[in-house]
Amino acid sequence: MKRLALLVLGLVLCACSNTHKEQNASIQLVEIYPQVQMLLAKKAAGDEEGAKQIHDFLNKMANQHIIDDTISLITRASVSGYELILPSQLEAERDSFVIISTLPRGIYNLGFIPQAKHFEFALSPNLNENGSEWNWEADALSREMEDFIHLLGGDKDAKIVFYDSGEHIFAPMGSAHVGLMWARHLGYKNLYRLVGGFEAWKGLKLPISTEVPHCCEM
């Protein structure tokens, strides 16, 4: 009986450990982000020994898939022409940003970063029937482009940050990435994506609001 109790306890602790790791994946991504930046810089400089040391350190901090996701996040931002911002940085400078949540409306209504406006996008870019890019109707889930431009505002130099859950980075790319690409396509210049997304924001116990901005009331 005692052995059975110990076995059950072990299984419970194992399950709790796995759940904890899953819940904190976005926070782990935020925590290793500076080190992954250093890793990529070492590789770009041809410093393989330095890169190996950082990679060995990273392996002690997070699972490989989280490291890979962080690399994908940084690489995609660089290639796509937008910046990345950590939750703590956004919280410190929140009043200087236009904040756009690209999460589904039902999730947004449950809580969002204070002052965040809402505009949902698809999880990955869609092609037109002829194979060309920039399929607004599919990417924006049939909402009007004028509504999107209205939320962003007329200042093309304004600092604008997009966030989704933070769960989709490699494939699919994430709705925040799709929104960012359209904002850039429309001429907005100072664009940011929130590292770790809303899951990291919540996990770090940063402020959450349910007071929907006037622009986004249903």
TrEMBL record:
CDD domains found in the cross-reference section: RHOD
Name used for this protein in its record: Rhodanese-like domain-containing protein
Annotated InterPro entries: Rhodanese-like_dom, Rhodanese-like_dom_sf
Signal peptide region: 1-21
Keywords for this protein: Signal
Keyword Signal (UniProt): yes
Keyword Signal on entry: yes
Annotated Rhodanese domain residues: 93-210
